[in-house]
Design a protein that fits this description.
3 helices; alpha+beta; single chain; 132 residues; five-stranded mixed beta sheet
C-alpha cells in the first residue's frame, strides 16, 4: 500500500482525483498509524462553487476503514487553491470531531487545477492542527 510521508506525497495522491472535475468535490483519505492509505474516495460532490463537507459522513467513513489518521481534500474548480473562511471553520470542526474518535486530521488540501494549498503548511492556519 501507499504510505504518505509528506505533503508532496499527499498532493501526488489527491491531484489526479480532481482532474477534469467541473464541480467541487470532497475527498477523504483514510490512513493507519504509519501513514499507509487504507482508503481514498470522494465522499461528496457539490456544485460549481460549493461542496458540503459532511462531518458525520466523514467520521463514519474513517471509522469504517479503521483509520487512525485522515486527510481531507477538496477542489475549487473555478478559482484559486486558497482556503476560504468556511474551509477553515469546517476544518476546525472536523479536527474536533475526529479527535473524539481517536483519529488525527493530518491535513486539508485545497486543490485548483494542478495546484494545491496545504492548510497545515499555511502559517496563519497551521496552529489549528497543533492544538494541545
Amino acid at each position: 500500500g501507499t504510505i504518505l510521508h509528506s505533503t508532496e506525497d499527499i498532493g501526488r495522491l489527491v491531484l489526479p482525483k480532481f482532474m477534469g472535475r467541473k464541480n467541487e468535490a470532497v475527498l477523504l483519505v483514510c490512513l493507519d498509524n504509519r501513514g499507509k492509505v487504507l482508503n481514498s474516495s470522494v465522499v461528496f460532490e457539490g456544485s460549481v462553487d460549493a461542496a458540503e463537507i459532511n462531518i458525520r459522513l466523514i467520521l463514519q467513513q474513517a471509522l469504517r476503514h479503521n483509520a487512525t489518521a485522515a486527510v481531507i481534500a477538496h477542489n475549487h474548480p473555478n478559482g484559486h487553491a486558497l482556503p476560504s473562511k468556511e474551509d477553515i471553520t469546517t476544518t476546525m470542526q472536523l479536527i474536533k470531531a475526529l479527535e473524539v474518535a481517536g483519529i488525527r486530521l493530518i491535513d486539508h488540501l485545497v486543490v485548483a487545477e494542478d495546484d494545491y494549498v496545504s492548510m497545515r503548511e499555511t502559517p496563519t492556519i497551521a496552529p489549528i492542527f497543533h492544538r494541545g
